[in-house]
Amino acid sequence: MAKAKSKPMNQGLGAAKAAKQDEFYTLYVDIQKEVEAYLEFDKDTFRGKVVYCNCDDPFESNFFKYFAANFNRLGLRKLITTSYDGSPIAGEQLSFFEYDEGNGERQKPKAISIEIEEVTDLDEDGAAGIEDVKLFLKRTPHTRTRLAEGGDFRSTECVELLKQVDIVVTNPPFSLFREYVGLLVKHRKKFLIIGNTNSITYKEIFPLIKDNKLWMGVTIHSGDREFRVPDHYPLNAAGWRVDENGVKYIRVKGVRWWTNLDHGRRHEKLPLMTMQDNLRFSKHKEIKGKKAYDRYDNYDAIEVPFTDAIPSDYDGMMGVPITFLDKYNPDQFEIVGITKTWFGGTCKTYPKQTQIGKDGRESVVTKLNDGPSIKVEKAPVGRTHYKVANEHFIQLYARVLIRRRRARPEKGRKK
Ligand SMILES: C[S@@+](CC[C@H](N)C(=O)[O-])C[C@H]1O[C@@H](n2cnc3c(N)ncnc32)[C@H](O)[C@@H]1O
Predict the structure, then answer these.
(1) End of a domain among 244, 267, 290?
(2) β-sheet bridge partners, residue 145
(3) Residues 342, 238 share a domain
(4) What pLDDT score was predicted for residue 305?
(5) Which of 265, 291, 369, 377 has CA 20 to 30 A from 73's CA?
(6) Among the atoms of ligand 1, which is closest to the Cα of residue 62?
């Protein structure tokens, strides 16, 4: 038996994207934890619904497995799954003749769709579970359909299926995230999907967040998550593990659930101190002891470098880190903009600037316009900064621009 190996580092979805790696498979436990969180808020979230996993190999995908195994408990009306042409893991656990029928020399499995409308105790072991689904799929070829267009979620066949469903749940290919979300929104679907934290800065995604049509899920807020990768995946300079069976896993940073399904976390109020108390007692040295919060030079807002340092009594605009979205309660705050793309929000455009790097090296750039800037008295030493005429500026990370909502009745937990 091969010995399990691991390497304690991780890599971001950006790296996956750069390597055009769309084959990261979600672990069952991560799906289970997230879906169960919606049931805590509303036990009927999935009752009577048609769920569609549209980037998923029937049986190898844990999305398919979770919804098939819990079909009756969730009260699903139907589960539809479509796989993608050439999937490297299709057929590993359960093979269908449609995968290679007429394939000739071609080794790649063809795409199929599977539709399940009931899960019964076929093996008569006293419970209807995943083994029954396996048996059912083996016995009922009519539940499977070959996908002539390869299972691309954008294909006519898959879009026709999409039109019939209520909720889409999957981890889609990272490289097609914008297009994927765009399609779900166009067809007004409910969804629960995995994506990159940085998606918030995409021009196709941020307006949805701002308009409360998209928000973060419940269970992933920081750190990384482990995903299974295909056997051919190169394990170089990343946190990885190979289990006793030779199956490879990598740890991926910056992952979040994205959804438009309501959940309890969105209605929890963020406990905050007043501005004065923050300036006196904040646990952050960047805030404690200051006379006032810094203000941006290119936007009329204060800089709040930590979500827990948002002053509870400030009515103006505030720039907060992107991770604020993990705590965002739309009854407490309004999202107004983002400093990365600005969406026309910036109030100042700088002429070309001199960028002075950490090592003192100078270059002429226009980067200062790409984010929130703060004017500083003196040129900082050992930190990248910018010079415009004789004034010095530093630039901050992308910030979400928010404003507190005046007292509105809070939404309660659905019984
Ligand atoms: C990030 S993986 C996730 C797989 C599975 N949903 C899971 O979480 O385990 C994305 C999957 O989408 C498939 N895929 C890639 N491009 C696709 C497309 N255009 N349409 C549908 N599926 C696609 C890949 O083969 C891969 O299985």
Answers:
(1) 267
(2) 113
(3) no
(4) 97
(5) 265
(6) 9
Ligand 1 neighbour 111 (Cβ under 6 A)? no
**Positions of the chain with pLDDT under 50:** 1-3, 9, 16-19, 415
Is 136 strand, coil or helix? helix
- 376 inside domain: yes
- 84, 93, 162, 183: residue to mutate for ligand 1 pocket, most atoms within 8 A of CB: 84
| pLDDT value of position 412 | 55
Q: Are residues 263 and 394 in the same domain?
A: no
Is residue 207 assigned to a domain? Answer: yes
Residue nearest to atom 6 of ligand 1 (CA): 171
- State whether 184 and 208 are in the same domain: yes
Per-residue pLDDT at 6: 65
Distance, CA 320 to ligand 1 centroid (Å)? Answer: 33
Last residue of a domain, which of 232, 251, 267? Answer: 267
Rounded to the nearest integer, the mean pLDDT of the chain is: 90
- Candidates 219, 199, 216, 323; CA nearest to 259 is 216
CA distance 186 to 69: 30
Residue 99: per-residue pLDDT? 87
* Pairwise CA distance, residues 353 & 235, whole Å: 41
pLDDT of residue 21: 60
3-state helix, strand, coil in the chain (%, to 5): 25, 25, 50
Tell whether 195 is covered by a domain. yes
Task: Write down the pLDDT at residue 1.
Answer: 42
Q: How far is the CA of 170 from the centre of ligand 1 (A)?
A: 9
Q: Which long-range contacts (CB under 8 A, 24 or more apart) does 369-372 make?
A: 369/298, 370/340, 370/395, 371/339, 371/340, 371/395, 371/396, 371/397, 371/398, 371/399, 372/296, 372/298, 372/299, 372/301, 372/303, 372/319, 372/339, 372/396, 372/399
> Coil, strand or helix: which one is 394?
strand
Regarding whether 35 and 149 lie in a shared domain, the answer is: yes
Same structural domain, 197 and 289: no
Domain membership of residue 142 (yes or no) is yes
* Span from the CA of 60 to the centroid of ligand 1 (angstroms): 12
Q: Are 87 and 211 found together in one domain? A: yes
Q: Give me 101's structure tokens.
A: 């029928």
Interval between CA 23 and ligand 1 midpoint (Å): 6
Q: What is the pLDDT of residue 379?
A: 93
Give dist(CA 333, CA 2) in Å, integer.
52
Q: Is 363 found in the same domain as 279? A: yes
The count of domains in the chain is 2
Write out the residue range of the structural domain in which residue 399 sits.
270-406
Q: What is the pLDDT of residue 268?
A: 96
168 and 181 belong to one structural domain: yes
